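Write out the bound-state structure for iron/sulfur cluster.
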Amino acid sequence: MSKKPFSVSESDFAAWLVCHLRYLYRSIGTKKSQPSLGKVVGDGTHEAAAVEDATVREAIIEKHVERLPEEQRAEAKQLMVSQLEVADKHDEVEEPVVNQEKEKLERWRVPGTDREFVIKSDKIGWAKDDLGRQNLQIVDMKSGLNPAWLAWKSKMEVSIARMILVRLEKNRDAVADRVSNLEAELAKLEGSARAAVEKKLTYQREVLVKEKAKTEEQLIVVKKLAGKVKRHIRKFERVRTQLFFFAMVAEQTRDYHEASQLVAQFLGKLSQEERGAVETLKAEYRKHFGNPDREPDSNRFEFWYKPEFGAEALQRYLEQIPAMEEARTTRDAEATTGYHCFDCDYRDTCPAFQAWQGSRNGSNIVPLTVIKPVAGDKEKTA
Ligand code: SF4
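---
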């Protein structure tokens, strides 16, 4: 009898690369923490978008909504319904795709090995390009807005916030100079002239405290916005990697070794009010820095997969597997703590996370031997 293959999905690789312990928890089916509203909305929308029957959709929504505390359920339901409207609209305007399958689970056993790659694409089928050639098209749907669009918007906000910071720093330095000059002047004075300078100095010192505080606050604003840009870019890269992985496997399962079209569709809705705020932001940016970069589509991006890049990537994925296998066999994995922990499904029960939260002492590597799961914990079958 042939050995059961070692199955790995793109999400397994993503977890492994961020934190080996996260992958281990995932692979042995460790109980997850309470999911966030965003996660439940994303999962529910994904599953419901794959079916057309209204009753089935309603049941799917209800099933996901029940994963949340009572007070979040109405909001989650409303968000799912609104995102499904966007998903349906995409379906109506899409170019015809031949033999399109939704939520398609595919497995590909790497020849000559006991490794198996698993994918589940939202939509996969054959589309015609402008020259009439047929290409494999893979579509991945996501909640929210295109992270490339969000990064574009946040970059403008960072530029404006930095400009304000520079102004505030100039003001602060000018006041600091005044204080220094007054201090120097005071050292040379006596009597009533000294009292007048002392009064001015007291006032300027108070102004300096205020200017310093304003600058510090603005520095925090800049840092937060810069962090936002980084997070959006990471999310964008993650979606690209997922789609690329899907194409890498679909190329093999279909024995189709041509370029494939990869599409990310985002189901968030931009309200009139938000649209107006973006236009104001663009106008403000233009006033100081000239025209902003071209605005990306807030609901979509696409790119092409090339098989030669897929072959290279496949090697890199395969190289990770022995260590993943060992972690799973020994139930031992190294934890890497960091801000990514806040998005981790296992943070509530992860001892490394608790320790990191408790200490926050600089080192971000916490070696940890994982306690073997209790009997009844199920191995994950991807
Ligand atoms: S909470 Fe952090 S350290 Fe713990 S498993 Fe998740 S990512 Fe790893």
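---
The two ends are 21 Å apart (CA to CA).
Residues 191-253 form the longest helix (63 residues).
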